[in-house]
Specification:
Blueprint lengths: L14 H11 L3 H7 L1 E4 L2 E4 L1 H15 L14 H12 L3 H12 L19 E4 L16 E4 L1 H7 L27 E8 L4 E8 L5 H6 L2 H27 L6 H23 L4 H11 L5 H7 L3 H9 L7
Antiparallel strand pairs: 1-2, 3-4, 5-6
This protein binds zinc ion (ZN).
């Protein structure tokens, strides 16, 4: 989910560069000559660009937590095109790298965007844009599995544009947040007999990230879907299990315990700022956290019949 940490590929010294080496070695013609070098009498004569990028990778690896300090370099148009082509061209080595990055994640993040956690993965975002830093077009720690919405909105942005060089975006590989940055408020709207959600951001350091990627609005919208599924689960579970209880208040107690357990699992598995956790948490703490509320709200006749059978309510 937004502001959650995903697993970086474990890279020993220079391992990140081995991926680059593999990709450029599989190029052909002029691009191979520029990016890799030439083979003369079985000896590789590495190109100047190859040696330069090897050094650049060392710089990146040393600065993974302070990438804002990296300085843009200038490249000839031909070199820049070749470097960017490392990502744009689909070599077997690049496909393998992307696969390795995704396989390294928890089951949730093998299919969800690392920036928002809402939409599926449509490709890789370059944390440091490849337009400005073409040398890192295929650096494994610069490739973030992302949805097309986040990737498109983030575009070539990287620094926040203030006088002090600061990164504008949370880096899912190396930034870590263990406190509540997001807070979701649930509200029941009587006029439409529905719920709405409002997301509050409690730390302004993340406003740019959340605003630029449209996460505040997307969270509030998606929360309604998650909550509606939860509501259906609550009613169907009530209908399946109420016979085991003597009355509604004992059932309500068990329901709240179960909801708290689910909330705690969301917290453990998805993180304190994950949308799943926030939806469950806001509902659990709210005045609407009761099965009776849902039964009345939606005038669910099956559920009402169950209550009436046990004398918990009178049917009209
Ligand atoms: Zn996304």
């Amino acid at each position: 989910m937004a502001l959650a940490t995903i697993n970086p590929i474990d890279l020993g010294s220079d391992v990140s560069f081995l991926f680059y080496d593999k990709i450029v070695n599989s190029k052909r013609g002029d691009r191979k000559r520029i990016l890799y070098g030439e083979i003369i009498n079985d000896n590789v004569i590495y190109s100047e660009l190859y040696k330069k990028i090897k050094e650049k990778y060392r710089v990146y690896d040393k600065h993974v937590r302070i990438l804002e300090l990296l300085v843009e370099d200038s490249y000839s148009e031909v070199d820049k095109e070749a470097l960017q082509h490392c990502y744009d061209g689909s070599t077997v080595a690049l496909i393998e790298l992307k696969r390795t990055i995704i396989k390294n994640q928890s089951s949730f993040y093998q299919s969800k965007c690392a920036y928002c956690g809402i939409d599926g993965i449509d490709g890789m975002d370059h944390y440091i844009p490849k337009e400005k830093f073409p040398e890192y077009a295929v650096h494994p720690h610069n490739l973030i599995p992302a949805c097309s919405c986040c990737n498109g909105k983030k575009s070539d942005l990287f620094l926040n544009g203030s006088e002090i060089q600061r990164r504008a975006f949370f880096n899912p590989y190396f930034d870590e947040i263990n406190i509540n940055i997001l807070n979701l408020e649930i509200e029941y709207l009587e006029s439409t007999n529905s719920f709405s959600f409002k997301l509050n951001v409690e730390d302004e350091n993340y406003i740019v990230h959340l605003d630029t990627l449209g996460i505040i609005h997307r969270y509030e919208k998606e929360a309604i879907n998650i909550f509606d599924n939860l509501r259906i689960e609550i009613i169907s579970s009530f209908e399946a299990h109420f016979d085991m209880y003597d009355n509604l208040s004992t059932y309500e107690k068990s329901f709240k315990n179960q909801l708290k357990k689910s909330r705690d699992i969301k917290l453990r598995e998805r993180g304190i700022n994950s949308l799943d956790f926030l939806v469950y948490d806001s509902f659990y703490k709210s005045e609407y956290c009761s099965v009776a509320f849902f039964i009345n709200m939606f005038e669910d006749s099956n559920s009402k019949l169950k209550l009436a059978n046990k004398g918990n309510i009178k049917m009209d």
